[in-house]
Amino acid sequence: MEWSSPIDLIERYENFLQMNTSSSTEVFYNCTPPWFGSICQYRFVLNESFSSFIQMRIDEPQLFYANTTVTCYIHMKCSNHSFLTCLDWREICDGKVNCLDDGEDEKYCVELEMNQCEENEYQCRNGMCVNEEFFSDEGIVLIRISSPECLDGSDEARFLDQRSCPRDSSFRCEDILCRQYTDFNCGDGNCRAVIATRGIMPCTNNRDRAINYFFDWDNLVDTRYSRCFKILMCVTHVVSQIRFDKYCKSLCNNTQECKIQTIEHCPPAFIAPTFPVWDGHVRFGYFSNATSIKLFGYEPDFVCYNKDLCPFLIPTFTLDNHTCLHTNRLNLTSSDTEYDIFRACNQLFQNDKESICQGSTTTVRCLGTNKCIPTRRIMDGFADCYNAFDESIAANSCALNDKHRFQCTSEQKCLS
């Protein structure tokens, strides 16, 4: 007869051995297939073996995506003002603030960034250290099955291919962070780019929907996304009649009526959503009379931010005690987004003490700010300073004496 027991029993037994205490009040349940769980309370509806079920879960993931539930990191209370956020463990120390009330998910992460590795170690982009033997050890032949040791994949960046991850339950897909700060982590090895405020390309496993990332169209008293914001989206976003009937019909009968409601009943300018959309302080705003069709309907008319974190930006007005700037003053190029500008305001490296940068050989100060970044972030392909000073020749990347950098032959650049 086969028996089974939950894997966390090992941890409980280890605790018993370490603490040398009695556990006579605890009951051990030895489960008979097909039952499993801490008290044998679960079983699969399908008449399959456990190994067959897991294989089917990998081979045919779409069968399990309709009613997706997600796992939340329970050891940290993450609040976004009026509601709790389901925090994925990969979103801790990922470079952006998700817990908007207190920034708990990025607290103390600067210690990881300033970490110094041993001589025989390679330093990942996020500060972690791995044995040097693992750096770029996969090779061209294994391009499809590259398994980085760094959580951010920086040790195998040239060969990292995550397209097959939704059907792959290996560590290379489970234990991976998004390379771009603005990407949404689907939790299966895939990351979806958030292009300005143009929404998210849906995750294959529907995690973005499961955590209610998008606003609730049917909730007319939604404190996060006002009615005015939803109506404006119906006006400015190009939607089919079917999608209009699905999302907008409860707000207004047609596009023209939406325009009238927006102009007559909404304030001239408003912020939406009510909570920050980036790094705990950046908010998007809209003008109610801006009812012309936009190529990407969610693009803001202005951005509000903490002026102390972004001293290099010159505000144009204030709204509801927020410092704001018209987006046309950001001088965005076709490849830029609002996030690219405000990444230079990232709180992780903001320093109030002058001594943190002074005399340090491992940090460099961004010009015109009180922000210091690790020198290894110079010329790494990601602009951390305003005007991308850290990605310029002036940052003197070849003076770092980093054996893992590639030195260009035609110019004085050493790429990370």
How would you describe this protein?
The chain has a five-stranded antiparallel β-sheet with strand order 7-8-9-11-10, with no helix packed on it. The chain has a two-stranded antiparallel ribbon with strand order 1-2. The chain has a two-stranded antiparallel sheet with strand order 3-4. The longest helix has 11 residues, at 9-19. The N and C termini lie far apart (57 Å). With 416 residues, the chain is an alpha+beta fold. Among the domains are: 227-348, no CATH class; 351-415, no CATH class. It is globular. It has nine helices and 15 strands. β12 and β13 (372-374) form a beta hairpin. The chain is 16% helix and 11% strand. Mean pLDDT is 76; it is low at 140-144.
Average of per-residue pLDDT values: 76
Q: Helix share of residues?
A: 10-25%
- Alpha-carbon distance between the two ends: 57 Å
Q: How many individual helices?
A: 9
Task: Give me the secondary-structure category.
Answer: alpha+beta
Spatial ordering of strands, largest sheet? 7-8-9-11-10
Question: If you compute it from the alpha carbons, what radius of gyration comes out, rounded to the nearest whole angstrom?
Answer: 25 Å
Describe the main β-sheet briefly: 5 strands, antiparallel
- Report the strand count: 15
The share of residues in extended strands comes to: 5-15%
Structural shape: globular
Catalogue the unreliable spans: 140-144
| SSE series | HHEEHEEHEEHHHHEEEEEHEEEE
Subcellular location: Membrane
Membrane topology: Single-pass membrane protein
Keywords: Disulfide bond, Membrane, Repeat, Transmembrane, Transmembrane helix
GO biological process, one term: vesicle-mediated transport
